[in-house]
Amino acid sequence: MNYGKLWKIIIFTLLISLSSTVLLLADEVEDILKYSFDSGIRANLEGIKESKIYTSTQIYTFVTREVYQEPDFMYIEYINPPRVRGRILIDDGKRRIEYIPTTGKIRVTPSFFSSQIKEKREKNLKVLLKNFEISQLYEEQILGRPVYTISLSPKGISTPLLKIWIDKKTYFTLRKEKYNLNGEPISLFYYKKIQFNKYFPRKRFYQELPSLPQNPETHPFRTYYSLEEIKRKINFPLSLPEYFPHSYVFQEAELMGDRKTVKLIYTNGIDIVVLFQRPRIDVAMRYHRELMFRGMKMRFREGIYGNTLVWSSSGKTFVLIGELPLDEMLKIARSMK
């Protein structure tokens, strides 16, 4: 037997196998991400999703039933934990209706599939592609469906901040894991069950809601401003941070309902950090701890959707919210000018 020829055949077979399971061009991987981040829907499906949020002391778990129908319909019903059970969200491409059973209230906001929100997602994707190295890890299956497995790491850092499992046929995200720079989990979600090509008449989902009021409380689109525009709309000097971590860039500013509070939004393409400021007031805050930093009294709270740091300086009150550790938040506070 010609063993040399046999080994050549084996190696050639392995190379073909590997090339079919791993290697995609960078542009192809970016296109996959773009399709998956697109707010449109390319499938009719029903699934049970489990989401977990990690803090230093606790893991919060949520279970939802979700229905998506192309091109722009979404229904989400909370199953667990008991405190949110029965909460319902319906988005029909024109408006988003949210029902909160504990209060019996219905809130109506602009659709997640609106052109304005799609434009914001596209801007975020551009920032993400600039700040992160994107790599395809390997092929696998989730719930019997072939998926692309994609990892995003900050440029110059090997630790991934995000891993995404994307269905090959529909570009629907079936699993997502998010980490901090120490490799510790921040959040994840995955579908425990999912069935594609499932269609429901949309009207049946509205039967889960109480009767809609004649004039439900409607929240219009917010108006976003550049830094120069927001400076002209307030009557106090705007303070800006000279430091932000992990390639965050300024995204937009809002003027809040009282017309005295400015909301500055920063993003690195994956996360956002929000900085509120206004003329000095007392901010009510529960379950926090107090600390002193450079002669300033501050309050810090770790929460399910990020950390919060509150302080007052130079006649203004600041509230910083985001998925950042305390030391990074203190650096931002120290850099305010």
Main traits of this protein?
7-stranded antiparallel sheet, 6 helices, Phosphorylase Kinase, domain 1, alpha+beta, outer membrane lipoprotein receptor (LolB), chain A, globular, 337 residues, 12-stranded mixed sheet
Annotate the secondary structure layout.
Elements: H1 3-21, H2 26-37, E1 45-54, E2 59-69, E3 73-80, E4 88-91, E5 95-100, E6 105-110, H3 115-131, E7 132-142, E8 145-154, E9 162-167, E10 173-179, E11 185-196, H4 203-206, E12 217-218, H5 227-233, E13 249-255, E14 262-267, E15 272-279, E16 289-293, E17 296-303, E18 306-313, E19 316-322, H6 326-334
Parallel strand pairs: 6-12
Antiparallel strand pairs: 1-2, 1-11, 2-3, 3-4, 4-5, 5-6, 7-8, 8-9, 9-10, 10-11, 13-14, 14-15, 15-19, 16-17, 17-18, 18-19
Intertermini distance: 78 Å
Total DSSP helices: 6
CA-atom Rg in angstroms: 23 Å
Question: Which fold does the CATH topology of the largest domain refer to?
Answer: outer membrane lipoprotein receptor (LolB), chain A
Estimate the helix proportion, in percent: 10-25%
Shape descriptor reads: globular
Class from secondary-structure proportions? alpha+beta
Q: Taking all residues together, what is the mean pLDDT?
A: 86
Number of beta strands: 19
CATH homologous superfamily of the largest domain?
Answer: Lipoprotein localisation LolA/LolB/LppX
Name the strands of the widest sheet in spatial order: 7-8-9-10-11-1-2-3-4-5-6-12
